[in-house]
Amino acid sequence: MFKSLHAVMTALGVLALSACSTQTAPDAGLPQETVTVTGTEKAFPDAIGSQIVYGTVTSVTNRPYQVSVTPSTELSGGWCGGTLISSTWVLTAAHCVVGYSASQMRVRAGINDLTTTSGQLRTPSQIIVHPYYSSSADAYDIALIKVGTAFTLGSTVQTAALPNNTTESALDVNGKYATVSGWGKTETGAYSNRALREVTLPITPTGSDCGSRPSNTICGKYDAGKDSCNGDSGGPLAARYNNRFYVLGIVSYGPVECRGYGVYTRVNGYVNWIYNNTGISAQ
Questions:
Q1: Domain boundaries of the chain, sorted by first residue
Q2: How far is residue 76 CA from its own chain's centroid?
Q3: Alpha carbon separation from 32 to 35, 200, 221, 248, 273 (Å, rounded)
Q4: Which candidate in 52, 94, 187, 255 could, as Cys together with 143 as Cys, close a disulfide (CB 3.0–4.6 Å)?
Q5: Residues 80-103, buried b or exposed e (16+ Cβ, 10 A)?
Q6: Does the structure show a pLDDT above 90 at 283?
Q7: Which pLDDT tens digit goes with each residue over 118-135?
């Protein structure tokens, strides 16, 4: 999971949750300004490198909604993840794409091993970052990517649904579990860009388990050190309901040691914003 740059710079040994806004979030669903990312500055240099801590090797057959989101120069490494929510739209974290133009990024689906040329590779035609996102804080860490050519859906490439209020009330509850997936280093420090990994965590939308955090976030509670980490950013926190995968959260930030208490952007808080920009409804 991405640890924001100011959190990474915090002294080691401290739960380095970066400063979070405590103000009430504006209506995340009201019509928003569309921000098209431009420029060439690398987003949060040297702070992105993947981990799934104390997880297991999985497959895109099990997580077919999982995609890799990277600059075109970083295809074989774990930069960020994303969630396919239609054949042309991907949900990811704002910090994964800010500073990049659409033509500089790449999205890959249907792939387990990032070092190969397998899977489906697409170039985005548009990137939309939430207009309230700021790199100096951890709120509104959500973005949308539209690919220029639709992905071909099949056994290894499928969409995850956006949770409506009913689904949210069943899945995003204190004591429930959800699964986060991504590529990169494990708890041993060895990179896992050759294998997609996943870990299932207890979650809560309320409480102070993850410290002071922004509105519209989900806390990944402590469970034997299991966690997402740098580079899993933007990837899905998902759960199954009525035989469908739902994306509940987006990997956002957390303590630098990646042993629990990760924070995820709560997708249900932004379904109106997503609909206004993509036409995709919660289900």
A1: 5-15+31-278
A2: 18
A3: 9, 33, 32, 21, 7
A4: 94
A5: bbbbbbbebbbbbbbbbbbbbebe
A6: yes
A7: 999 999 999 999 999 998
Q: Read off the pTM.
A: 0.81
User: Rounded distance, CA 58 to CA 56, Å?
Assistant: 6
| CA triple 100-103-107, angle to 5 deg | 85
Q: Active-site residues: which are they?
A: 95, 141, 233
- Contact assessment for residue 200 and residue 125, using Cβ atoms and an 8 Å cutoff: no
First vs last Cα of the chain: how many Å apart? 26
3-state secondary structure of 206: coil
Query: Which CATH code of 3.40.190.10, 2.60.40.10, 3.30.70.860, 2.40.10.10 fits the domain covering 5-15+31-278?
Result: 2.40.10.10
- For the sheet with 80-84, list strands across it: 35-36, 124-129, 143-147, 89-92, 80-84, 66-71, 105-109, 120-122
Nearest CA to 231 out of 82, 99, 63 is that of 82
